[in-house]
Design goal:
304 residues; alpha/beta; 9-stranded mixed sheet; 6-stranded parallel sheet; 15 strands; binds NADP nicotinamide-adenine-dinucleotide phosphate
């Protein structure tokens, strides 16, 4: 099978860190162009204007949108209307409704839409899901605590409407939770800390049905924490290191996977070949519910 031509749109942190290396390492894909107002990838034709890329490169059938969520819908809509398959970084949009609209467009155009959740591809997630299958969940806790200045240096969009604040990393935890639980849970309570003068929270404490609680914090210095624990009658499952390390009752379990972004691109290959789409909004439903239900507390101002 010859490799498929793909275009990256938004050449920023995650494109450089993960998308470009994953595409370049895959025999399935050829990075044939980029679209970015400032960024580019050495040796790859770059466009400043998305419409120009769509009209001048009909040979490129797939577009991977690595933009922040706020501008993503307009780019996705144009790509789908132009008959291109589309891959969306997480979270797939700034609202649920706009992603539902994109799903309908993809169906109408007969192309693939893949709303990726990279944390679901972490090494321990599939094994955790398999272990939890058929079990009754008695409780659980999520601790997702990282340093926003390290992971999002200077990215003001995370504190602007639609940027989701601490839910930008927190939705990664929720993407794992919604993947591994044998039955869905829903949010019942939320406390959200908004830095004075900012539009999105910097910390959140959530409570779900089945006794599951979550704590998201974006000001953690030193070691970073991305842990999920689920209690069942058969034992306690722990996923640490963002889903990459699995243990049951303190005993490490073997895990194996190709890595998050290589796995996402392999999944995209399968979806395009099968003519399918994958648009699961369940992680984002919890975020929307937290914004809807959450008590707001104003905390100290934040600056990068
Ligand atoms: P970023 O570096 O701030 O932005 C990515 C690129 O998008 C920018 O370089 C910019 O390229 C373009 N862009 C930004 N605002 C735009 C706008 N209003 N209109 C058009 N283009 C715009 O962000 P990122 O960290 O790569 O994150 C992008 C997405 O990946 C987010 O949804 C994030 O949740 C997800 N993600 C990030 C990380 C991470 O470690 N940062 C990890 C996993 C997933 P130009 O200015 O050159 O056009």
């Amino acid at each position: 099978m010859p490799s498929r031509k793909i275009c990256i749109v938004g050449v920023g942190k995650i494109a450089h860190d993960q998308h470009v290396p994953a595409i370049e390492a895959s025999p399935d894909w050829e990075l044939a162009a980029t679209v970015s107002r400032a960024g580019s990838v050495e040796g790859v034709p770059s466009f400043r204007d998305f419409d120009a890329m769509l009209s001048e490169r009909p040979d490129i059938g797939v577009v991977s949108l690595c933009l922040p969520p706020q501008p993503r819908y307009d780019y996705a809509r144009k790509a789908l209307k132009a008959g291109r398959h589309v891959m969306l970084e997480k979270p797939p949009g700034q609202t649920l409704a706009e992603v539902h609209a994109l799903g309908a467009m993809a169906r109408e155009a007969g192309v693939t839409l893949y709303a990726t959740w990279h944390s679901r591809m972490a090494k321990g997630v599939a094994a955790a899901k398999a272990w939890l299958a058929g079990q009754e969940v008695l409780g659980g806790s999520i601790a997702w605590k990282e340093d926003v200045r390290h992971w999002h240096p200077g990215q003001e969009w995370v504190f602007q409407p639609g940027g989701m604040g601490v839910f930008d990393p927190g939705v990664n935890a929720l993407s794992i939770l919604t993947e591994i639980l044998p039955e869905p849970v829903h949010l019942t309570e939320a406390d959200l800390d908004y830095p004075e003068g900012r539009d999105t929270p910097i910390a959140a404490r959530l409570r779900f049905t089945r006794g599951i609680v979550a704590e998201f914090d974006w000001l953690q210095l030193g070691p970073q924490t991305w842990d999920i624990e689920i209690e069942t009658a058969r034992g306690r499952l722990r996923l640490a290191l963002g889903g990459n390390d699995l243990s049951i009752d303190g005993v490490a379990r073997p895990v194996d996977a190709p890595g998050e972004y290589p796995a996402l691109y392999a999944r995209m290959t399968g979806l395009v070949e099968a003519g399918g789409s994958d648009v699961d909004l369940s992680p984002m439903v919890h975020v929307a519910d937290a914004m809807s239900l959450g008590r707001r507390r104003i905390v100290a101002p934040f600056a990068f």
